[in-house]
Amino acid sequence: MIFLFTALYAEAYPFINYFKLKRDLQNNYFQVFSNDEALLTVTGVGKINSAIAVAYTLGRYGIYRDSFALNFGIAGSKFPQMKGHLYLINKVIDSETKKVFVPDVLVDHSFEESDLETFNHPVKDAYRMEANLCDMEGSGFYQAASKFFDAHQIYLLKLVSDSLDFEGISRDFVIQLVEEKLKEIDEFIKMIKESFKTEEVFSEEEKNIIKTLSDKLKLTASQRQILYKACLHYKVRENKGVDFLKGFFGMEVTNKKEREKAFEEVLSHLR
């Protein structure tokens, strides 16, 4: 199941028609449209509205092992040449808190990638931006979605509508802009679905190997997450198991310096 989130109905309208989504008339809180394979929620503008809608949707409708979340919407750019292009987001910056979120993009795709900065208000001055793109929902969406999904199940696609001048931005303009990109987006969604058709990425033995190695190296909580992600990337990229990590079980770690050295050596074999 794909959970799709847009801030505006104009952004959602092309998806509703393309995927033949039907409105959930029992939902009085958000505009929700769905079929057997996709569910779309119109969140409203702003990162707080986005976060509330994501948490509400995923909590109410439930998620499955092969589910994933996709935030789609128009965005502004400080570079005029980016207008009209579709970007897969590889880093999200919250302008207010300065927190940074990094999705794990494990699927092959044809999109250009970009960073994205989320503001509490429309941005008209490029000098205020740290990232190339800006919106008002991305960080709220990501933070809420990360409570339900792993990083490789969270995606953001942004379609650049303007270069911070808001010139010509209307409902009809947004609908037409999105409709022109629907086939590309549909292909991307199909690729994600295909990637989740496989069984659990790691076997029980591999999970035990990762946990045992983490325990033996006395890794911190953040290091354990880094090791898990490195193993995930390695297995997807190389299509090989991680049984070879048992070869590191004999490493002795008695202090922080030794732990850092051993940890880096393990990671070097997974890159």
What labels describe this entry?
Rossmann fold, 10 strands, alpha/beta, 2 domains, 271 residues
Blueprint (SSEs and pairs):
Layout: E1 2-6, H1 9-18, E2 22-23, E3 31-34, E4 38-42, H2 47-61, E5 68-77, E6 86-94, E7 100-101, E8 112-118, E9 133-135, H3 138-145, E10 154-162, H4 171-179, H5 182-195, H6 204-216, H7 221-238, H8 256-268
Helix pairs in contact: 1-4, 2-3
Your description of this structure?
It contains eight helices and ten strands. The relative contact order is 0.13. It has two domains: 2-195, Rossmann fold, CATH 3.40.50.1580; 204-268, no CATH class. 37% of the residues lie in helices and 21% in strands. It has helices at residues 9-18, 47-61, 138-145, 171-179, 182-195, 204-216, 221-238, 256-268, and strands at residues 2-6, 22-23, 31-34, 38-42, 68-77, 86-94, 100-101, 112-118, 133-135, 154-162. The model has no long low-confidence stretch (mean pLDDT 92). Helix 1 (9-18) packs parallel to helix 4 (171-179) and helix 2 (47-61) runs parallel beside helix 3. InterPro entries: Nucleoside_phosphorylase_sf, SPL. It comes from Caldanaerobacter subterraneus.
CATH architectural type of the largest domain: 3-Layer(aba) Sandwich
CATH topology of the largest domain: Rossmann fold
Order of helices and strands: EHEEEHEEEEEHEHHHHH
Name the average pLDDT. Answer: 92
Strand order of the largest sheet: 5-9-8-6-10
